């Protein structure tokens, strides 16, 4: 684990009194990289544009004081973890307490001893360098974990759809580096196509591990069972057999007969699927029924059927779509999803998926993604194509 050299660490000195700035620059020059701001406004601009490794912050300044600078730095994502040491002539314990309450890491009263300032600076910089190194190592591990997780899911659906007259496309966007959403498309021995979408409780590493186990078991169950209800029941029993943390996964499973267009589906607590018929209004199908997988063995999952006509599209999605929020904390919601496809689906499955993902992103308008998003579209191609 490589740590940043202290000589490469940059310190932002913020003080409106030039004599104080000169003293700090003289003391720290040669040991660290230095930058200076003479007021709160310029300090905020500098720190948010190019975050330093440490801020030495005066409190009493004209305009925005040090307390407010600290508060705003703690509120911004880029500087939330930035070490801040107050250097102030305010000696009252209440002033010091306020500094710590606003997120200061250290507080030193003026006049200060240079040796003490240098020692505290080194201590804060070492702690940040170590924390950054740990964070970078974790990010590397999570990046590798994401690659492995995405590698578990099917990357090329062509072998499953070739010669079936079905056009299938999927996209998965974890809220974190790794997540609990899953999808699968399998070609059964009798020529039918099995399509599955699932959403593991929670996010992050625990959900990703449960997701990997679920996908592995699902592939085995789908090859042994004929009907969606049977697949879900068998998978549920396997997951419930060894599940000490009582994790669970919602899942929708459909089996498509390419020749007739007959679709048989079953749901284990998953949100309903959306059917977008050619030239007709979209409607929800296969409503959420039964309980999610993994909680208790012996559950029964009922199957329903519908016809997928040429030009029709079936849209499977996780609740990261309908529960996506905008800046006003409004959810995308089921009614908006219906309205989104009121003009029909895309000309291809990929276009349908891309349009919906783009619509969700536009609705969020930059709001951080709170949940994993997975979208899968199954389109029965026109007979003329």
Structure, described:
The protein is α/β, with parallel strands linked by helices and 385 residues long. The chain folds into two domains: 6-144, Rossmann fold (3-Layer(aba) Sandwich), CATH 3.40.50.2300; 154-380, PPM-type phosphatase domain (Phosphatase 2c, domain 1), CATH 3.60.40. The protein has eleven helices and 15 strands. The strands form three sheets. The protein has a five-stranded parallel beta sheet, sandwiched between helices. The chain has a five-stranded antiparallel beta sheet with strand order 6-15-14-11-12. The protein is elongated, with a radius of gyration of 28 Å. The model has no long low-confidence stretch (mean pLDDT 92).
Looking at this protein, list some descriptive labels.
five-stranded parallel β-sheet, Rossmann fold, 11 helices, alpha/beta, 385 residues, 2 domains, five-stranded antiparallel β-sheet, Phosphatase 2c, domain 1
